[in-house]
Amino acid sequence: MRHGKYPLIITFLVPPLLLYGIFVLSPYLQAFQISTTDWLGYSPSANYVGLENFGTLLRDGALWNAVRNNLVLLVMLPIVTIGLGLFFATMLNMGGRRGVAGVVGVRGSSVYRLVYFFPQVLSVVIIALLWKEVYHPNNGLLNATLRGLGLGAPTWLGDPRTAFWAVVAVMVWSNVGFYVVLFGAAMQAIPRDIYEAVMLDGASRFTTLVKVTIPLLWDTVQVAWIYLAIAALDGFILIQQMTDGGPNHSSDVIGLRMYNTAFGSETKFGYASAIGVVMFFLTLSVAVMALRAARRDRIEYS
Amino acid sequence: MTTVDTSAPATPAADSDGPARTGDRAPRRELGVVNVFSHGFLLLWGLLTTLPLVWVVISSFKSDGEILSDPWGLPAALRFENWARAWTEARIGQYFLNSGIVVTGSLTLTMLFGATAAYVFARYEFRFRQVFYYLFVGGMMFPVFLALVPLFFVVRNAGLFNTWTGLSLVYAAYSLPFTVFFLTAFFRTLPSSVAEAALIDGCGHFRLFFRVMLPMARPGLISVAIFNFLSQWNQFILPQVLMQGDESKWVLAQGLSALAVSQGYQGDFSGLFAGLTLAMLPVLAVYIVFQRQIQSGLTAGQLK
Asked: Where do the record's region annotations for Disordered lie (chain B) (predicted)?
């Protein structure tokens, strides 16, 4: 019955492969090559300079500053988002514990899920512009509230001390809903009789969460962590739209550094590609480390 | 009914009804406290999520004076002229249409190529299958930034710079890794007995795909289509690099970003709020109607 499968394989595989090869693979491969040149964009001349760009990169203070912000994000974003996500998902899916086998959600949990998830379907540009207005020093929602309470009104995005954290808060805000739903779906897949047994043994809710639910969710938490870590190494759109890395580079990230180096006032394409290569290896090592650190035996319910 | 236990706190020693009672009472009291506590946090986060959105919609009806003097207040009148101004003068209407054109093209391509490639990977044995598969799927891990500079030239040399066709092709290409990954897993779960039966009955390989496998894969196709639609509709960095010229061809995300810059200079806050509302409301409406499919579509891929 295998007769005639090759016409299908070729017609089905070659067009996608071509599209992918031209627009995805070839740019990535070229980028590595460009990173070893001193190419200044639109000029035709590009000289091979070996690893010089990477040497410059090591001494580039602005870049290190951006890397530091990305590292802070890498730690903060997954911890806070996963923490809040687990907390809300637990409340929504097993907060209303009553009766004997009652591991059920609190009342109105479907409404909460609907509302929490909404930022996830909004474009990041909309979220950035919306929050930029919320943070607006004079007519923003946040400062209007603070003034109403008789408190001070900081210039959130204009102050080097607060700008970065204000953007981080928006990242958490827009991500939590997704993880509430993700963890919720995983919690629903845990067999009820495990909880019945635990309840009969008299475990408290907290013990149940720490000793039963979280270990059973570990696979999902791991996925969430990798996903958030990769998001933390990006963060480009929010930062560019809300602060453009400012004030005084306080909220800069690697992606924005690279974008401005390539498409800013100077088009240093060679150097920008070198930054891209660094970002590539950072992303790769974070993903590999996350996979290793979080590796556990997969649990299957049969 | 949940009732908060308000009776005099009985110490275990004073409770004469034996262990059965105390065992019943302790969790109930805990429940009352925890519920007030948890509902408080749930409500708080719900408010944090909705308030900024509601505030933008309300502000879109205000005059600039009202926005500046009283950020919390309600508009004196519903000024739909803000919306009209954003729709025509700030070209939000045009950008909507452009985004629609680009995403229609790219989503069709993504689904067609993604499904065919995934089907081949999932159901056929051939040489270098693993190599090609990991070549595709590996694309999920790379930061798009690394590709930006060369991509700019690839697209320009192909004569596709500043065109919707170019943008559609690029969107589709960058959506393939996840689509192939997701659909390969999905096609593998479909029963092979049906396929074998069809082949024995004389069904060709092409007919088998279009008549049997594709219809069976519908739930998976819908999930991944929703995912791709949202990520392509919200795409920002690719158009920013590949659509730098003619303003009339921009997609929605670019248009909004430009609107924010220009309204910032002009001090036309109501126009900006109206533009944001116009971009947000259709998404909100579609989301509320299809929330279950969207939530499961977006989270399904992460659980595989």
From this structure: 1-24
Residue with tokens 């693993």: B130
A233-A236-A237 Cα angle (round to 5): 140
Asked if A43 is an interface residue toward chain B (Cβ–Cβ < 8 A), one would say no
Residues B159 and B41 in one domain: no
**A267 in any annotated domain:** yes
**Domain that includes residue B28, residue range:** 23-53
pTM of the model: 0.86
Same domain, B123 and B246: yes
B48, B54, B58, B59: CA torsion to nearest 10: 50
| Collapsed DSSP state (helix, strand, coil) of residue A245 | coil
By C-alpha distance, the chain A residue nearest B45 is A116
ipTM over 0.90: no
Q: Which positions in chain B touch A220 (Cβ < 8 Å)?
A: 302-303
Q: Are residues B139 and B251 in the same domain?
A: yes
Judged by CB atoms closer than 8 Å, whether chains meet at A130 and B56 is answered as yes
What's B86's domain CATH number?
1.10.3720.10
Domain with A3 in it: 1-27
Q: Which B positions 8-27 lie with beta carbon below 8 A of chain A?
A: 23, 27
Same domain, yes or no: B47 and B107:
no
Q: What percent of chain B has pLDDT over 70?
A: 87
Does A3 share its domain with A64?
no
Q: Is B126 on the interface with A (CB under 8 A)?
A: yes
Output the pLDDT for position A296.
56
Residue B262 sits at the chain A interface (C-beta within 8 Å): no
Contact list in A for residue B67 (CB cut-off 8 A) is 139
User: How many other C-beta atoms lie within 10 A of the C-beta of residue A299?
Assistant: 11
Instruction: Work out the mean pLDDT of chain B and round it to a whole number.
Output: 84
